[in-house]
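Let's practice the habit of predicting before peeking. Look at the sequence and jot down your guess about where helices and strands might fall. Then scroll down.
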Amino acid sequence: MSSLKDKIIVITGGNSGIGYTTAKAFLAKGAKVLITGRQPGAVQKAVHALGHPAEGFKADQSDMNDIRRLYEYLQGRFGKIDSLFVNAGVAKLAPFETVTEAQYDELMNINFKGAYFTIQQLLPLINDGGSITLLSALNAYTGTPNATVLSASKAALNSLGRTLSRELAYKRIRVNIVNPGIISTPLLEKAGLPDETREHLSNITPLGRLGQPEDIASLVTFLASADASFITGAEYNVDGGLMVHPLIA
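Done guessing? Here is the structure:
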């Protein structure tokens, strides 16, 4: 893989799970990484674990003021950046009949509005020839029950990525989308799934296992590298074949 040495990478929601693992992968390839997160203690802990030259910044992707503060900090600290990984997001399920306006706003504000304006605000800092990678989900396509708002937020994110890949092509900024399958992250652990449920999820995945954060990190670092210089507007399902499996519904 082409060297990412000294490239400046920004990862939203990078203090745990896929974001943290991806930050670790970028650092291993010689990049400089700044992660964001809503909880300053969690961000500080993650930066300490990642080690130099990782940095952190407290920012809530749903808060426009935080997004502006992030822009100002990055401009002063680095001037320009090479890659943005829009990873921050939430996944909450509820039957359609019970969804409240507050629940709707939370998901849409973080997953889509926040991502939209994070890209818009940070765009002037991204070097020509840089990259933007959006972390979406299979929910953008699968019509999963109880995920009306989640699915809509992810479908909007995918549409944004496709559109921006054309709109930003004049700057040679590549925009790609990653749709993870069922990934074993702290979020999944917190759900308290019984062993039989985890086994079932593994069994319905054609490759016979849950995904690992490293599976996503490998693709994201590739998409930020020069080896992916002719890839833009692409969507990658990293799901062990789940998308084409009839039991996904």
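How did you do? DSSP finds nine helices and seven strands in the chain.
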